[in-house]
Amino acid sequence: MARGQQKIQSQQKNQEKMAKLKKQQGSSQIGTAAAALKHSCAVCKSQMPDAKTYKQHFENKHPGKELPAELKDVQ
Length: 75
Ligand SMILES: [Zn+2]
Prior knowledge:
Elements: H1 2-37, E1 39-40, E2 47-48, H2 51-61, H3 69-72
Antiparallel strand pairs: 1-2
The structure holds zinc ion.
């Protein structure tokens, strides 16, 4: 019986560990997502908050340039 309990306890510890790890990863993922929101214009290196703005910027400022692949499916 004691062995079984130990197993459960270590499982709980592991779960706590994983939860903490997930939390840490989660917050760093948010950081990555926020960073991904910033688009940098391929031509003039201006920072765009989102792809839609970037596409509008690109079409207005660089009409002669070919649209970057990442903007082709942006509505
Ligand atoms: Zn630009």
